[in-house]
Each structure stands twice: as structure tokens, then as C-alpha cells.
Design goal:
Number of strands: 2
Low-confidence stretches: 1-29, 32-40, 102-152, 155-194, 197-217
Mean pLDDT: 51
Distance between the termini: 37 Å
Oligomer: single chain
Strand order of the largest sheet: 1-2
Largest sheet: 2 strands, antiparallel
Number of helices: 4
Length: 217
DNA sequence: TTTCTCGGACAGTCAAGCGC
DNA sequence: CGCTTGACTGTCCGAGAAAA
């Protein structure tokens, strides 16, 4: 990476760093492509477009909300959780002649080898498959539930705020299929999140699948 | 044991170059 | 002029170090 690092980081760690964190639960997405438990291939990593200055300095995962979850965890407010500034791109750099590749196709910088673009890639909006066997599924929070939490103000002028989004990573299945074989449900949120947004929460009622995506408006 | 630091892999962006 | 390529820049994983 190209950023100059400063020794006096903000001293903040990532939510998922601690070895005590239940690794079967992520409160925001890490990888865009869902990989079944039987596959050992790692999915493509997701990145936010613009990390906040705190996460950037600490080289830690950020999320689009402001304050981001990491800042929420450490008690930073909107005033401190600021978008980092991006450098202007250099123009006029000369390049040598292009090497020809075998075969044609869409942008192949990252997909030359391996299977072709599969339908399992989420659409640009960031929806996740909910088909049986999927390891990552959106929690079907209703607007009612979202309304329990503070609206995250948008930094884009004219754009209204939005809610934090949460996704659950389902733990790998046991060998023996069947509902009885699932381990007991893990704690839904890390204690740090619970401290920031204490219960009670309305109980989650699974909704009938009406489409490929969870219901959220 | 927990928190912090940071090297480097990975991902996204976009202008130069290419070919129709 | 649209598509491809690859340089450039940002994000953040994950391992090791430091602190409590």
C-alpha cells in the first residue's frame, strides 16, 4: 500500500480482529461472493469506496455508514468519522505497447483463470443470495426494526440518511444434514455493538421469500 | 489475553493504447 | 469511438509486537 504510516495510530482495532470474536458472525459484509462450506476457494474481498480517516490510518475495514461501525464501537461520532481524501490521479503517463492476451472477453484483469463470471456474483447494489446452502444471507430486518436505530446521516448533500446494514454469516453446516444438526444459534451481535445500541429489540420474524433478495426498502 | 501496528495482497479506478 | 489493458492508488487481511 502506498499510504505513509504514522506510528501514533488511533489505537483502534477491528471488530473482527479479536480472537474472542465469534467468527461465524459478521455484522457487515467482508466478501462479495458466497462460497459454500464445501468449497475452500476464497471469495473476492469487498471494499468500501471511501474508508473513514480512522479506519484508513489503522488499515482496518470500514463501512459506508458514518460513523462507521468501527468508530461507533470506539465512541467516535460523525464529526470524527470522516471520509478520507483521495488523491488526484496522474495524467499523461506514457505506456508501452500492449501485450496481447489469449482469448477475448470482458475485463480479465482478475478473472483470467478460474471459472467464468458466475451468476453467484451479487448485483452492483450489493444483494446477497439467499438460496438454500448459501452461507451469507441478509437479515430480513423490517423497516420497523431499522427504525429502532439512529439514522446515519449521509455526507452527500441532498441525500437523506440511511441505516446501518447487517448481514449474518451462517456457520458451516454439520456433516449430517437436517435441522437438528445445526449448532445452537450464536450471539447475534458482539457485546461492543450491544453497548452502542442496547436492547430490547423487536423479535425477528422470518418473512416468506418473495424473491431472490430479502425484503428491505 | 487483548490491543495495536503495519507489510503486503487484493481490489477499484480510469487514462492510454488499440482496433474496428 | 468503444473496448482493453495495466499503472496507479486505496482498502484492509492477518501476523507479529507491544501493552495491560
Amino acid at each position: 500500500m502506498a499510504l505513509p504510516r504514522q506510528k501514533n495510530g488511533d489505537g483502534i482495532d477491528d471488530l473482527s480482529d479479536s480472537p474472542t470474536t465469534d467468527s461465524s458472525i459478521n455484522i457487515y459484509p467482508r466478501f462479495s461472493t458466497v462460497v459454500s462450506a464445501s468449497q475452500s476457494v476464497r471469495a473476492k474481498r469487498m471494499q468500501v469506496k471511501n474508508a473513514c480517516t480512522k479506519c484508513q490510518k489503522a488499515c482496518k475495514k470500514c463501512d459506508p455508514a458514518r460513523p462507521c461501525l468501527r468508530c461507533v464501537r470506539y465512541g467516535f461520532g460523525v464529526e470524527e468519522c470522516l471520509n478520507s481524501q483521495r488523491k488526484e490521479r496522474r495524467k499523461g503517463a506514457k505506456r508501452g505497447p500492449y501485450k496481447k492476451r489469449n482469448g477475448r472477453g470482458k475485463h480479465t484483469a482478475h478473472s483470467d483463470e478460474g471459472e467464468p463470471e458466475s451468476e453467484s456474483s451479487p448485483p452492483p447494489g450489493g444483494s446477497y443470495p439467499t438460496a438454500p446452502g448459501a452461507d451469507l444471507a441478509p437479515v430480513a430486518y423490517t423497516p420497523t426494526l431499522y427504525a429502532q436505530y439512529p439514522l446515519v446521516p449521509s455526507h452527500t448533500p441532498g441525500e437523506s440518511g440511511y441505516f446501518h446494514q447487517f448481514y449474518l454469516t451462517i456457520a458451516p453446516r454439520q456433516e449430517s444434514e437436517g435441522s437438528a444438526a445445526y449448532p445452537p444459534p450464536p450471539q447475534l451481535f458482539p457485546t461492543t455493538f450491544l453497548a452502542a445500541y442496547p436492547p430490547p429489540y423487536p423479535s425477528y420474524v422470518p418473512q416468506a421469500q418473495t424473491g431472490p433478495e430479502g425484503q428491505m426498502s
